[in-house]
Structures are given as C-alpha cells and as structure tokens.
Design a protein that fits this description.
five-stranded mixed sheet; 60s Ribosomal Protein L30, Chain: A; alpha+beta; 37% strand; 2 helices; 10 strands; single chain; globular
Length: 159
C-alpha cells in the first residue's frame, strides 16, 4: 500500500488501496472528503482561512478555495458528489501564551471557514478532531473511510 503525503497548501486524491496523509497540522486544517461507494478519498491541507478573493492564489492554501478545488479533483477522479462525507482535523491554538489577539487565533478561523466551505457544498461533516493546543498528523484509508489522528502526548485515535 502506498501512502501519498501532502504538505502545507497541497491536496491529493487517492483510490483504495492508496492512503493519503499530512503531517504536523497545528493551526492548519486537514479537510478530508470520502466517497464510500467508489472508495475515493481526498485531503487538502488548509493553511489560511480566506484568500481575499485574489486571483492567482495557491487554491489549496485557503479554506474558501481549497475545499472547492478538492471537490473538483475528486469528481474528475470518479467520485460521486452526492455520496461524499467529510472529516476535519487540526485548528489548534498554537500561540496560547502570546495574548488574546484575534490575529493569533488562526486555528479558530481556519476551523470555522473550513467547516463553512464544506457545509456550503452540502457535504455532511461526520467527524472532527479540532481545537486544543497540540498538533496532529492524519491519514485517510479510502478502503473504509477511517481517519487516523496521531497527536503528540495524546496517542492515536480513529475517527
């Protein structure tokens, strides 16, 4: 089995038995879409909440453009948009000791905008592991839709 690793502001679509993973989600969000009928999964590593509607942006970097791009690529790979479900992870508050400025609450804004981007597409969110003050690594198995979440000091869980 091959695992495709994506970095910040990247996305990938895989078919079982391939897996897709991203490492070190802090304030970033991993948005995962999954088609259980066709066993196709996709993941985007969202870095920032909003593109400001600028053109010529790296679409996977922003919640408002990255989720749309992930959906487009999944449909091109054969996913049925009506069969999709979503899972989200990340959105940690990594700068807790530096004050209460909204500018430092990137994780909260990423989480909110990512959820809104998924819900705007009418894709049900069936699980999430967001918030806190710790990073996460996630891996999707499109054979069954399980999302493994590894957290430093908190172990491994599947959502």
């Amino acid at each position: 089995m091959k695992t495709v690793i994506i970095g910040m502001a990247e996305l990938a679509v895989v078919k079982a038995p391939q897996h897709v993973a991203t490492l070190g989600l802090g304030s970033c969000i991993g948005v995962v879409l999954y088609d259980k009928i066709n066993k196709i999964g996709g993941m985007v590593h969202i870095v920032m909440p909003d593109s400001g509607k600028k053109s010529n942006v790296i679409r996977a970097k922003y919640a408002d453009t990255g989720v749309d791009e992930l959906l487009s690529q999944m449909v091109r790979a054969g996913a049925n948009p009506r069969a999709l479900t979503a899972k989200l992870a990340g959105g940690a508050h990594m700068f807790g000791g530096l004050g209460k400025s909204d500018a430092l609450k990137v994780g909260d804004r990423n989480a909110f905008n990512s959820k809104m981007a998924v819900l705007r597409l009418r894709i049900p969110i069936i699980a999430e592991d967001m918030g806190g003050s710790y990073g996460r690594t996630i891996e999707l198995d499109p054979e069954n839709g399980s999302l493994m979440v590894k957290t430093v000091g908190k172990g491994v869980k599947t959502i």
